[in-house]
Amino acid sequence: MRLRLVIVAMLVLTSCASVGDVDDESNDAQPDLDDIALSSAVAIRATGCAPGSIRGAGAVIEGGFVLTAAHVVAGASSITVQPANSPPGSEPRTARLVALDPKSDLALLAIAGSALPGLPFASGAASGAGVAIVFRESKAVVHPFVITRPVQVRILDIYGQRTETRESYQVATEISRGDSGAVLIGPEGTAVGVLYARSDESDDRAWATTMATVPRLIDQARLVDPETGIDTGACAPD
Asked: Cα-flanking dihedrals φ and ψ of residue 94, to 5°?
């Protein structure tokens, strides 16, 4: 899926693999921060919009919902999640969409019977270094990042219909297809953003949505039956 940004960027499309071992690409992140990130991270697989499946990442936040990018799950007929710390061979869990915002490209999922710890999230502006969990082949990878600056991004919504202004962070990190929805964990162990795009011009530049709209999405999600969820709507165009 390609969207137009004032600062030219390309949406990170989904194509990651199953969960198993853990790798660590971070050099400076504290081990306890890595553990916090791994304990809440999930790989996401959505079917119904593309041949095969669309893959992305996410994390459980306070309230027990999985936070991810909306374009990963929009229009899906089936959504499953696999916790990053699952034992090898574990079956993925069924998830239901309970909130979606096409403007901010954020979504919340509910997992029946989930006992994963939920990350607190930052309410104010974030800065500095941290880690995100992405997925490479059979591994959950601890991936470092640095927030370089807050930005107001002019971008089409996930359906390519309306130009919106999205509260974002420019992030110094190299990401790949399948990393959309990965949650940025700041130095205090809080969720500070959600990856949604990478640069066409620089391999180590990406963008993440801030957490500004997350409280509103949680309020919406709490009104939804987690066993049935909400209609996933239309697929986000490629």
From this structure: -75, 135
Top CATH class of 9-221 equals mainly beta
- What single string gives the DSSP state of each residue in 174-214? ---TT-TTPEEE-TTS-EEEEEEEEESS-TTEEEEE-STTH
Residue by residue, pLDDT tens for the chain (238 residues) are 433 333 333 333 333 333 444 555 544 545 599 999 999 999 999 999 988 899 999 999 999 999 999 999 999 999 999 999 988 888 999 999 999 999 999 999 999 776 677 999 987 889 999 999 999 886 899 999 999 999 999 999 999 999 999 999 999 999 998 999 999 999 999 999 999 999 888 889 999 999 999 999 999 999 999 999 999 999 998 7
In this prediction the pTM is 0.87
Report how far residue 6's alpha carbon sits from residue 209's, in angstroms, rounded to the nearest whole number.
Answer: 15
39-61 core/surface letters (b: 16 or more CB in 10 A; e: else): bbbbbbbbeebbeebbbbbbbbb
Structural tokens at position 67: 């936070």
